[in-house]
Amino acid sequence: MxxxxxxxxxxxxxxxxxxxxxxxxxxxxxxxxxxxxxxxxSMDKARKEMLAADTKRIAGLDAAxxxxxxxxxxxxxxxxxxxxxEAQTTMEEHASGHSGESMQIAGTWVVHYVIGNVRxxxxxxxxxxxxxxxxxxxxxxxxxxDLHDGKLERWTPVRDMIVVEHFNPASDFPNHRNTVGVAVRxx
Length: 187
Fold this sequence. Notes:
Elements: H1 3-19, H2 27-70, H3 74-96, H4 100-105, E1 107-113, E2 118-123, E3 128-131, E4 136-141, E5 144-146, E6 152-158, E7 161-167, E8 179-185
Antiparallel strand pairs: 1-2, 1-8, 2-3, 3-4, 4-5, 5-6, 6-7, 7-8
Helix pairs in contact: 2-3
């Protein structure tokens, strides 16, 4: 562990200790988390509906293109081909479903926990996360990482690092974090 990361871990640990890491979070924090989770679920549902509409649009444009080609109407065929290309680009944008947060966090991160553990996470632009050493995958949404292992982590970007709060079991969230760490982007 580099000196900078070690110092950051100490600062993070001291900061949480001074905040009273075991003190219950105010009720409004839990309410805000519920709202953010519901928002993420709604956005995922809307993205799936948009993808279905995009697929239908492209299929319809493809059928129209075939009709124009069969009718030897090259001007219309060219126009439809342009629309189809734009529709495919739109579908790719909808399929990515990435948020600004995920784009900023996309990459490989080495997390140094204050208890001495080290983990390497890979986050893609969609917020999908893998932890290869454990063979685990999950999602990072609204700053909450869920690897579907009964634990949660809250990731908070701070300058060029991420403060990672670990909750085990997940039901401890947001009141009782078990450990904290600092993540640094791997080049």
